[in-house]
Design brief:
- It is a single chain.
- By secondary structure, the chain is an alpha/beta fold.
- It has 2 domains: about 5-35 and about 265-355, Aspartate Aminotransferase, domain 1; about 50-260, 3-Layer(aba) Sandwich (Aspartate Aminotransferase, domain 2), CATH 3.40.640.10.
- It has 12 helices and 12 strands.
- The protein has helices at about 40-50, 65-75, 85-100, 115-120, 140-150, 170-180, 190-195, 230-240, 250-260, 260-285, 305-315, 340-355; strands spanning about 25, 80-85, 105-110, 125-130, 155, 180-185, 210-215, 225-230, 290, 300-305, 320-325, 335.
- Helix 7 links the parallel strand 6 and strand 7 (about 210-215).
- Helix 1 (about 40-50) runs antiparallel to helix 9 (about 250-260).
- The chain binds pyridoxal-5'-phosphate.
Length: about 350
């Protein structure tokens, strides 16, 4: 392949790296340990639905059944949603709808990589407002940047990946009022925070777009289902660039069943939040460890020393965490997905022993 064949904007992108997985406990990608098929009724309803399933037919272009289930869950109209192959696909659609080459988006840093990557692919760039010490968002700096640059899209990840920080909804409303352009709030982890969501403000602010996903609290990472919620006019605009049959028929069959069973699924979510707080408290007691308060299903942890040794010691115990190697933003960092007490007890003992 000749490099000249590539779109110029991506010529020097690094390949996206997904770590090869050999470990039993994979807690590096914020997946949920729940298998929804174990929830009473889910498998039975799925099998029943399969009786009339016709995989030879193209799926519904706008995922009507999922939109209806979401409307019931969120308390909005089906027309307020656009659904796709994971939140990642929705980010691509969103940026593709609003960005021209040379445009700017505004992000806080550190955050999820996909916003900057997606913007750069389109020949746009990202203005970054660095977090305050302790990885809390610089609210004043963000508002100033919105007013000064009027970026085409202002991106707020709330709660933030990878820091776990939750911004108050009142701040996001200030951003919405200050921005002449799109404000995109990524609420992938909002079901864990259960407060400060702005999804009910889509009727109030015609420039607000909220992202949610079924990958995290709903435990469907493998199914691929994410959605945007916004004013109908915005949804219609984004739908113009969507691939006609972007979401496969099986996800369209299964997701509404899972959404209907959310009460049981959220019991597991609640258990994860309790376990997160326990893990946080235990990690906080370990010398040479800094752990940040989190409103998600993961914790950001930094160590003063022995980062690589701890990573390897965890792997020997069959645990894979996300490690930030040579990172400017997150020196000596790990991002640890919260699962169950047995896994976390091993984790805690590995950190304790290494840093004793
Ligand atoms: C996981 C995640 C998403 C979307 O994930 P999908 O699996 O593609 O739905 C979006 N934003 C953030 C911040 C995430 O962590």
């Amino acid at each position: 392949m000749k490099t000249e064949w590539l779109r110029k904007t991506i010529a020097d992108f690094d390949p996206y790296f997904v770590a090869p997985i050999a470990e039993k406990h994979v807690i590096n990608a914020n997946e949920n340990y729940l298998n929804v098929l174990t929830i009473p009724g889910v498998k039975e309803e799925l099998i029943q639905a399969l009786d009339t399933f016709r995989p030879q037919i193209y799926p519904k272009p706008m995922s009507d059944d999922i939109r209806k289930a979401l409307a019931d869950y969120i308390g909005a109209k089906p027309e307020n949603f656009i659904v796709g192959n994971g939140g990642d696909e929705m980010i691509t659609y969103l940026l593709g709808t609003f960005l021209d080459p040379g445009d700017q988006i505004l992000i806080h840093s550190p955050t999820f990589d996909m916003y900057e990557l997606g913007a750069e692919t389109l020949g746009a760039s990202a203005i970054k407002v660095k977090d305050l010490p302790g990885y809390r968002r610089d609210q004043k700096g963000l508002l100033e940047a919105v007013r000064r640059y009027q970026p085409k899209v202002t991106v707020i990840c709330n709660p933030n990946n990878p820091t776990g920080d939750l911004l108050p909804r009142a701040f996001i409303e200030e951003v919405l009022k200050a921005a002449d352009n799109i404000v995109f709030v990524d609420e992938a982890y909002m079901e864990f925070a259960q407060k400060e969501s702005v999804i009910d403000l889509i009727d109030t602010y015609p420039n607000l777009i909220v992202l949610r996903t079924l990958s995290k609290a709903f435990a469907l990472a493998g199914m691929r289902c994410g959605y945007l919620a916004a004013d109908e006019a915005l949804i219609e605009a984004i739908a113009k660039i969507k691939a006609p049959y972007n979401l496969n028929a099986f996800t369209q069959l299964f997701a509404p069943i899972v959404i209907r069973h959310r009460e049981d699924i959220f019991k597991v979510r609640d258990a994860i939040c309790v376990e997160r707080d326990r893990l946080y408290a235990a990690m906080k007691e370990i010398p040479s460890v800094t752990v940040y308060p989190s409103c998600t299903n993961f914790l950001l942890v930094q160590v003063d020393k022995k980062q690589e040794e701890i990573f390897e010691a965890l792997r020997r115990k069959d645990i894979l965490v996300k490690i930030y190697r040579n990172s400017q933003d997150i020196p000596n960092g790990f991002r640890i997905s919260v699962t169950t007490k047995d896994v976390d007890d091993v984790l805690i003992s590995v950190f304790r022993e290494a840093l004793a």
